[in-house]
Structures are given as C-alpha cells and as structure tokens.
C-alpha cells in the first residue's frame, strides 16, 4: 500500500503562524521538503497580499525554488486572478479551497458559498493544470457546529469528475468513524487533518482504511486556525510518516530529512513545534 503525502507547511502552515518569514526562508523550506522526497508540496498562496501578509511575495518564493523531479508543487488560489498568478508562476497544480458552510465561507474567504462554487467552476473550466478542491470545515464549523455529511457529499459529487477532492477537518473536531464514513460516502481521495483535539493521526488511519490515498500534513505540525488561536495545527508530516511506514504503508518520504527540517524550523521560528517525532527522533535510531 502506498499513499501520497502533501506537505502543506510552506502555505497552510506558515499562513497560520504569527510571523511572516522572508521569501528566501520560505523557498528554503520548500527545497528541504523536496530533498526529503515529499511527493507533493503546497508551496505558496496566490491571494491578496492585504488578506494574508504571511504569503506576500509568492512569485518570488516559487521563482527561487529548485525544482526536483518527482515532487509536484501546488499552490492555493481562491479566484481566477489567483489562478492566473499561479499558472504564470508555473506551479504544477491548483488547490482551490471551498467551505462546506455559508458562515465559514463568508468569514474566511469573504464570499458566499455560491460565489465560491462559481469560482471553482470557472477555474475547473479553464485550468490547464490539475485541480484539487479542498472542502474546508467538512466535519465541523466554528460558527455552525457539526456539518451535515449530506451537504459535503453533494459538494464532492459535483466536483469529483473534474477535480481531486480533499475533505478538510479545518478545526480538528472529527473522530475516526466520522472520517471513515465521509470518505466512504464521497469517495474523496484526500483528507486534510488537524490535530487540534489529538484525533488527527487516528483519523488519518481511518481515512486510509476507507480508501483515501492522499494525506495533507505539515512538517513539525506547523499551522493552526485563526478561529482556534490556542489550538495546534495540521498533523505533523514526520509523525505521520513514522506511523504509516511502521504500519506497512509506503510514503517514499525520507523521515530523517523531515525531522532535520523541523529541527531547522524550530530554530527559524525560535520555539518548539507541535510535532512529537522531530523531538523524540525515529526508532530504531538511524
Ligand atoms: Mg490546515
């Protein structure tokens, strides 16, 4: 069994961190992850600079990356303008994010769900790049509570033929049976999990059991959620790789290289990260 891990640290991770890193440091992070043989990296975000200052200078980041064959570089776009910038920067894949609930769409992306769906449709129509659509708050919403799986299934169904669908537990509220059921029902190939309530890794295994083949994670567990300021972020890439490889699931990722990357990041950010394995080390020690 083999899965694809997408390291979303350089985008989803850093975007939710308080500090804004220099573009050279962000490019260095991407290069360290590709050297660790991550098959996919979400490298940058093409949204308005005023909306997300942490992601300013995405073109510069992408231009300074050393492209590694075998790594697919994706970026986030929320509208056609973002798609155009992303395509001009010559990334390999578009990640479009769509909220499952109206309130989250308005608060997080400043547009109604209907407008967001229409934007997704236009990008799907014109994109020459493969498109991933991440359905955020697919399990729970900070404003609307539990999300009806039927609503998510309907969204996913409308996109499945043209996009790779990723179900996101944006605020980390899901538990394994919910993940198993929604992945089974939607046939979504991907999940994006947060470890906010310490269920992220159990959820990852449940998603794989249900047939998912793509897992988002971030080195060191970088990231968070603006609606849960004290909470942890994405599941950590190195913790996920350690778990999966020992469970007989191939990732192709160089675990020691990811651990070294998180240790480096700890120095860059000047604080301990959320992940466990970069502190404990692998086992048996290499
Ligand atoms: Mg995330």
Into which percentage range does the β-strand content fall? 15-25%
Q: What is the 3D shape?
A: globular
Count of individual helical segments: 12
Outline the biggest β-sheet: 8 strands, parallel, barrel
User: What would CATH call the class?
Assistant: Alpha Beta
Number of strands: 10
What is the H/E string? EHHEHEHEHHEEEHEHEHEHHH
Description:
- This protein has helices spanning 9-15, 23-35, 58-64, 80-88, 102-109, 113-126, 149-159, 176-186, 200-209, 237-246, 255-269, 277-280, and strands at 4-7, 40-45, 72-77, 93-99, 131-136, 140-141, 145-146, 164-169, 190-193, 214-217.
- It is of the alpha/beta class and 286 residues long.
- The protein has a single domain (4-280), classed as Alpha-Beta Barrel (TIM Barrel).
- The strands form 2 sheets. It has an 8-stranded parallel beta barrel with strand order 1-2-3-4-5-8-9-10, surrounded by 8 helices. It has a two-stranded antiparallel sheet with strand order 6-7.
- The protein starts with a strand and ends in a 6-residue tail after the last helix.
- Residues 12, 192, 194, 223, 234 line the site of magnesium ion.
- Magnesium ion is lined by residues 12, 192, 194, 223, 234.
């Amino acid at each position: 069994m083999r899965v694809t891990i997408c390291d979303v640290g350089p985008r989803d991770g850093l975007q939710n961190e308080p500090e804004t890193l220099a573009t050279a440091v962000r490019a260095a992070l991407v290069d360290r992850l590709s050297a660790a043989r991550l098959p996919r990296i979400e490298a940058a975000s093409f949204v308005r600079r005023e909306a997300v200052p942490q992601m300013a200078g995405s073109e510069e980041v992408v231009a300074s990356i050393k492209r590694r064959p075998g790594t697919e570089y994706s970026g986030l776009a929320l509208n056609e303008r973002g798609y155009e910038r992303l395509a001009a920067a010559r990334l390999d894949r578009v990640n479009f994010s769509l909220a499952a609930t109206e309130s989250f769409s308005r608060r997080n992306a400043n547009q109604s769900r209907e407008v967001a769906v229409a934007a997704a449709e236009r990008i799907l129509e014109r994109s020459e790049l493969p498109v991933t659509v991440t359905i955020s708050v697919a399990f729970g919403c900070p404003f609307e509570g539990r999300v009806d799986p039927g609503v998510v299934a309907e969204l996913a169904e409308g996109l499945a033929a043209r996009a790779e669908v990723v179900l996101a537990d944006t605020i980390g509220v899901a538990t394994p049976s919910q993940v198993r059921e929604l992945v089974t029902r939607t046939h979504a190939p991907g999940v994006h999990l947060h470890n906010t309530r310490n269920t992220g890794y159990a959820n990852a295994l449940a998603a794989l059991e249900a047939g998912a083949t793509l897992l988002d994670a971030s080195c060191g567990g970088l990231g968070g959620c603006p609606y849960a300021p004290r909470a942890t972020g994405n599941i950590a890439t190195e913790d996920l790789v350690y778990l999966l490889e020992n469970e007989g699931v191939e990732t192709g990722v160089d675990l020691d290289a990811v651990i070294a990357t998180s240790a480096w990041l700890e120095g860059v950010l000047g604080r301990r990260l959320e992940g466990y394995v970069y502190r404990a080390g692998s086992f048996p020690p290499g």
